[in-house]
Amino acid sequence: MTTARQLSAPVPPGGMIGILGGGQLGRMLALAAARLGLKAHIFSDVAEAPAFQVSDRHTVAAYDDRAALIDFAAHCDAITYEFENVPARTAAVLAGLKPTYPGARALAVAQDRLEEKTFLKSLGLGTAPFAAVSSVEEARAAFAALGSGPAVLKTRRLGYDGKGQAKVTSANDAAQAFEHFHGAASILESFVDFAFEASVIGARGIAGDFAAYDPPENQHEHHILKRSIVPGKLTGAEGDEAKAIARKVTEALGYVGVIGVELFVTAAGGLLVNEYAPRVHNSGHWTLDACAVSQFEQHIRCVAGWPLGDTARHSDAVMENILGEEAAGWQKLSASGGALHLYGKADIRPGRKMGHITFLSPRPRPR
Ligand SMILES: Nc1ncnc2c1ncn2[C@@H]1O[C@H](COP(=O)(O)OP(=O)(O)O)[C@@H](O)[C@H]1O
Ligand SMILES: [Mg+2]
Asked: What is the CATH number of domain 129-190?
């Protein structure tokens, strides 16, 4: 295995940031790079990806197209990605050619729910009780081991927006769900009767410095994030604890970049970590309008070896995703007084993230 390259000096204005993935996150990263005078080169396996519209260069190729990856890296000063399922080999090829952040371990752990939960637990962080499932017998045994309350079976790899998940209420259910997933290696987790969901967007710079945004409360509909509210229902102490969790996770991973850590807040006020995303996160979109430096710029700063920017929030914010057909109402939304962001996606599909809108109210609550 070749060693991962590291930045020896900040990428100066005019430099090129490579971004794997051309969806809305890549698009907003490219726009943030542009604000700093940096250029973006998007690599996507989708023709006409939304990020192409706002970037300096793009490549359309498969993520395992070695020649295309080498050519891409040759144009870039530093590389990052907008999605966590970047194939490990792709990340390894790129990391051997140009500084690529976040690093391989952060990616590998996030790609496997069992490794991820085991890692979080090893840091002493609270998670839902969980057990590995790789056979029908294990599915039954895991259900019993978790105490026979409701549970969620999740495939270890490649799930998103609730895909690859099934709620189960008996050992038989668990066995059936496992078969329904065609025997894919899975994890069974106790169902958490949370009071609400939250997240924390943290950032760790190349020098090991850390900053986090105020943690939002998140509301999901049909397993897709619908709304992030800052400040939400978290107490000041819970907010501080959430930031400390993000710091611990990033330090343990030797992380460089922005991370999104998803949390459950229990009725008793405890924080359980659900998962982390080694990238910018949907629940941090409000930072574009409520902070001097958004999560997107923060991530670009990290990847380019620049100092971290200010995460302070100058307003209260409610961010709502614009999903599927809701995008047809763009005229009304554009007159609503919110900060409207549309992602340049031509086709409306049910549940597709078409844009978001952030409503600001002038004054943050005292901290
Ligand atoms: N153990 C659990 N208990 C209760 N709800 C859960 C649990 N795991 C997931 N969920 C719900 O499903 C949503 C999606 O699950 P998550 O693990 O974040 O997967 P992904 O976001 O990758 O689809 C969570 O935000 C939460 O609303
Ligand atoms: Mg999630």
From this structure: 3.30.1490.20
